[in-house]
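Sample entry as discussed:
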Amino acid sequence: MAAFINSQANAQQKKGILKTVFILLAIVSVLLAGFLHKMLSPRVLSDTELRLNGAIQFEKPRIVRDFQLLDQNNQPFTKENLKGKWSIVFFGFTHCPDICPTTMAKLNQVYKKLDSDVAKQTQVILISLDPARDTPEKLKEYVSFFNPDFVGVTGDFMEIMKFTRDTNIAFKKVVQGDDYTVDHSSNIVLFNPYGDYHGFFKAPHELAKLKLTYTSMVKTFD
């Protein structure tokens, strides 16, 4: 009888140990899952952290006036084309010797490094500040060199000027002998999926900072 009682006690003890082990394993699994989720989730930055990393996010996005331009396929490009996706917009021109090709190359690198869900929500746009020389055909060749998914936009000079004023982009034509160039702001402008001016990225543009700040703004958007 004593042996039977001892046997039952041992069995109960083993069950208790196994139960404890299972509980501990479950707790460790939950903690590990939480740790991995935190490590793999994009970092959310405060407005102060965004500014320290060269990004400005407006407290209230700014509404821009509608505009009538043309894309690289000679199709109308209006404010409606900024809706439904995040739009990373750079103002430049195809004859630009340094800042423009460098920035477009960086945007291509950032675009390729975005998480797939963020990349699907993103379009990269080059708006020409030199419409006299930048025809749709010229822009198509230019933007496709960096990425075939990129969009090139040109059109009437006054429409472009109106758009630049709404996005605080300064530029001016500078005569150089028989030729000319265009001095312009190097900020990268950001539009949210409602087509509103959401903020901008200041130069110099570093790949890691661009990806970090942009992803943070997308992930925290209501």
About this structure: The chain has a mean pLDDT of 88. The radius of gyration is 27 Å. The chain is about 45% helix and 25% strand. The longest strand covers residues 55-62.
